[in-house]
């Protein structure tokens, strides 16, 4: 809602305008489609209608109402009415306190129009016609239309909340903990959802015993946030003993050790601050960061994904770089999951997918950054715990690390106002979710406003000399932002100075709120006036909360009275190191096993239409990947722009060089061999950037782990194995990790009623230097007659393969075999390939990944709308030759006359497998030729293969029903 | 010759202002990005300009309808001067959100509604120049212009598209698939005098060869969006 100020006295008159679209409103058909998809289909007599609602409070005469009508209703598109609707309908509006941007804009419009409006609110109305009973309508509203976490609804006409009433005590509550037993402390931690370990509670008790007073609620909550898994990465810093009796170095130390050992000149900053910094050329540096926003996206998919993108952009802004591109990797449950198998309290995977994709699109499109690289994966393990990885890349010239804050600097918060949104987000994400999560997590949901963040970028980019330190307000809100900045210096801040969205917030809420779009900077008093001018110009609110002190104490006041007083040393270093025990996985290695594939053509078409491999065009076209004009290789490529690229390339229109982004992720390998998975994911990310023309000797990596509860010993063991794989690959490719993030406690309850970890999901992002942005490569076949060359070795490695996802894994565990093993020759291969590219010997190039060589060649055919005739297979075993997913392989198109030179550059390690043709088929020896349009139809899911009959001739296991009615 | 001064108008949430400024610079203008509120406070900036662009993006987050609030800011703050600017025949271009703003200010006819399919869409399109157009921005352009769209509210609506065509007010139509359900495949409209152009697609994102999805080092493109800006800047230079 938007309101001028708390109002007293007689209530002003209220008006409501109902606005309907003249042409069909696409939102109405979207509701019908969604109802069908989640199993609540509408009667054919139902007539869905949607209208927008505007609520206004103020003394307005007819002339004023006409002016407003003229502003709000476009006569070519809409009809507006000031009368209450008579048709049966349900109206939805925001819960009190939830940001209503349209209402705020309406107040601004009223100012411009000279109208005396005291408050405004907006909502929407949905009518289903008379054919739907009220219970069905209520279900549709709850499941599809409204979001109970941020909205409320009523049948008939709803009254908005114009003025959120609220009065705070302004004081902190003392929480007595002295003398409490450990059990009592654990109970206290549970009641307050502190998500602290018993050891940590004891350390806190001891600290306050020494100080001689009880902690305040502000102090306890601050410690819980700062020491949360989300903020402190307790598992990645823990001492771990494995079931082999081995004492392991902390996981974070392992990754850092690799980066230190590689000692690459292009790494400017790694594992420090908000993002990693690399510099490939001149004085341009890139800031790299990827984050997860899994739990918020499970509860409120749009808001969770929306603010996930917003948060990672602030990370880049928080290290003084200008954001230039966004990435996202999304993991969902199968869209055709039956509604009955979605547990109570969880949203249907389709609803989650729609909300998440719209949330990513909304933030990126509005803030004006290209959303370029990504992946979408489907697995039943993500049904109630979707994963949302969002990355951001920033660029700047002449970056120097800010070295403040200094004593005397002011503590300045910029951007959005603080409300009750997103409170306890860090501890929320550190707890596992259960059926009640949706209800209790309401306050944890964050609401994004990309326009406010856009203005923050406008203010901060170019203002680098106005501050001495900067950080974003993310998890933990001000407690974490100011708390981190105050480390080693101390700060004294007044909460009454924090601009609030509405009154009534208690001190701990102000301090802990994760309201979005806020940055904290340290400013020398001499620079305040200039900063104020800049903020005034762009319309960004700034507030001066206090100063950095130099006494190493963090003091937080409410109306002058301290509500928190903690030594920064205790806050940041007082946490006891976690002791953990792990059971290491025992993966199958070196056992080659093939698959029985009776109909390779059928298999290829099924693979292409498998959701993980099939075109993501529906999603990609919802993201603006063109803005800034720097996207040189797009996510969709080829003659008809309908084939997948390996990596994307970003290069400013006026620059000669650029950078490539590649993604590696494979949870199905992770389930079977987490170490090989991690190595393979690094290899895939690097292979993707090399395939588009990046330099394999200038690659930086980001790691993002989304794992289950690490206190389960096997889950922790899988995590350790994955870190081992990351480290081995990082060293082999001399590609340093520069930043990373772990999201643990991603769990769900299975149909067996047991808690399960999500599949071990590691996303590797590779960012690499592209020396010549005019020399880029895609899988688009270029010229009939050219030779096709396969690089790398093909083996019968099928565990976790997509052919198994299609036909089912062999029922006898002994027949499953192994996950593809690392290829020690790959780093040299990639270097040679890059040389060949620079020498002008490469026409097109594609990496071989999910679905194997057959899928890779099919995608090249689709990209170039040219045929391929394969004459030499890379393995005697046909299924292995076509469908094995052995690592580190690429297909390269080379002119026949250059084969000799290409072979020389590659040191002879090539296999010519066939030629590009001007025919219409993909031809393999011994397989019926496959029409390119059939490949393309399968890839676009225009034609979906019929379900596999259980126990049919080709299947070895369970059927994978992949039909999609949409 | 001195580069003609161009003003790129932005509001809170405008995000293709830099893209548009770069296109105008490459076409030979001296472009400055100015917030609508600042322009209202300094009308001399507009008086001195020879070309105005209203850039794309999401001014005010599209809340209450795309372009509405920024159009109101402009009309209340500097509406009269803007109408004078147009009346002198100086070139004005509104792209995407800027097009939406110009229809709301009545400097251009028609309205822009939600895409027929209900989604934001980003893809490359082909724009066919219309021989009958009076628009100075498309004058002499023979080849189709290729460029991306990126919008959720780009369905052009007009009660009488035939009269627009007769008046020479349709400079560009979609010749690839109509991406948003615009009436009569209209991608761009101009005012009766032909100096104000509004279009949903983004010619400012195809100003160097490399930006084209099917860019090939061996082949020059005849389809650059830059041509539009060269026309606009040339007209500005004559003012």
Outline the secondary-structure elements.
The complex is a heterodimer of chains A (966) and B (239).
Chain A: E1 2-3, E2 14-21, H1 26-37, E3 49-57, H2 62-72, E4 78-81, E5 90-94, H3 101-113, E6 119-127, H4 134-145, E7 151-155, H5 182-191, H6 198-211, H7 217-226, H8 229-232, E8 239-242, E9 247-248, H9 251-262, E10 267-269, E11 276-281, E12 284-292, H10 294-299, H11 301-317, E13 322-332, H12 349-367, E14 371-378, E15 387-397, E16 410-415, H13 425-430, H14 437-440, H15 450-460, E17 469-472, H16 477-485, E18 491-494, H17 507-512, E19 518-523, H18 528-538, E20 542-548, E21 553-558, E22 561-567, H19 568-573, E23 579-582, H20 600-609, H21 617-620, E24 631-633, E25 636-637, E26 643-644, E27 648-650, E28 658-664, H22 667-672, H23 674-692, E29 699-706, H24 713-733, E30 737-743, E31 747-749, E32 755-757, E33 761-770, E34 787-791, H25 802-807, H26 826-838, E35 844-847, H27 852-864, E36 867-870, H28 878-883, E37 890-894, H29 899-905, E38 911-917, E39 921-923, E40 930-931, H30 932-939
Parallel strand pairs in A: 8-23, 13-14, 18-21, 29-30, 36-39
Antiparallel strand pairs in A: 1-6, 2-3, 2-4, 3-6, 5-6, 5-7, 8-9, 10-11, 11-12, 12-15, 13-15, 16-19, 16-20, 17-19, 18-20, 21-22, 24-27, 25-26, 27-28, 28-33, 29-33, 31-32, 34-37, 34-38, 35-37, 36-38, 39-40
Helix pairs in contact in A: 9-24, 11-12, 11-15, 12-15, 20-30, 23-24, 23-26, 27-30
Chain B: E1 5-10, H1 17-26, E2 30-35, H2 36-41, H3 43-48, E3 51-54, H4 68-87, E4 92-95, H5 97-104, E5 111-113, E6 121-129, E7 145-151, E8 155-157, H6 161-166, E9 172-174, E10 186-190, E11 196-199, H7 226-237
Parallel strand pairs in B: 1-2, 1-3, 3-4, 4-11
Antiparallel strand pairs in B: 5-8, 6-7, 6-9, 9-10, 10-11
Helix pairs in contact in B: 4-5
